[in-house]
Amino acid sequence: MPAALSLRRVTAAVAALAALSLLLPARGEPPRAGGARAAVRVGLVFDVGGRGDRSFNDAADLGLARAARELGVTTEVLEPSGAEDREAAMRLFAARGFDLVIGVGFIFSTDVEVVARAFPATRFACLDYAAVPGRALPENLAGLTFREEEGAFLVGAIAGLTTATGRVGFIGGMDMPLVHRFEAGYRAGVREVCPACGVSVAYAGTTPDAFRDPVKGKALAVSQVAAGADILFHVSGATGHGVFEAARDMGVKAIGVDRDQHDEMPGTVLTSMIKRADVAVFEAVRALVEGRFEGGIASFGLAEDGVGYVSEGPHAAGIPAAARARAAALAARIARGELEVPPALTPAAAERRRGALTTSP
What we know:
With 361 residues, the protein is α/β, with parallel strands linked by helices. Helix content is 41%, strand content 20%. A seven-stranded mixed beta sheet has the order 12-10-9-8-6-7-13, sandwiched between helices. Strands 2-1-3-4-5-11 form a six-stranded parallel beta sheet, sandwiched between helices. Strand 1, helix 2 and strand 2 form a beta-alpha-beta unit. The N and C termini lie far apart (57 Å).
């Protein structure tokens, strides 16, 4: 009985999404008439929040639009209304014969594995894929991951070179391994350029709701500034808006994440760490078109232009020239493999993180 109920729910969801998809235009420019690549169809399923989040979803959408424009493929998108629609949306694209189906965000990881096994002739990709240790991916699934620690290292270096108080802050959303990579890189970047600087660390919670709690973000930021931090790096989704508000109100600087967040709080956002979901999406589609798509984990870091930070133009005007030059030299060393950035916290740092607010050199 439970299996039958589950099947009915999925069937109903697929039917509803099929009707919805008729109202959704293909993204990007019209495919070239008669071109072989126009027959290649790519479907992308946004994370909850969808297009317009000015963050990870929008970056993925840019990559899809670029693929339509430069590679001539046909593309469509779907925006799930809730968590229960993710699997149904991917099943819909696969059932319609799409060549590649992309899920945006680590939250798709389990669902995309299930659907990939059910549709072995379809290729799948998942941005921010969270692998389960010891479990092999289906051969038709590419897990697109990022070396977030490398980009975080660079903004950590900028913070360490720019701070006037000798203390900077890090505010994470959900206390989880993905966000820990940002923290580890940020700590290492600060330490590389300013060994005497301290880093205050706080997390908003232990569930996905921690990424959408700006009130909590503001409270954590206020505590860190009161403890002496004058630059705050947030990795907390919508919670980060509260961080920006606190930074503005208390006269300190903040660092954005995933995309250029300068316009969220002009004059307060010093720079932003960039996570190039657009690059990962475009490269996955290009691999498909060129006949070299492979299942497994693909990692994007500085060498692949998968991560970075806003270092040029008016949105980086507050970064001293000397700090920019030092960060550029560090980035080159990382890209060449001469400088290794820790992808995880040390056991001691992980233990200190358990508190609501930690301070450490």
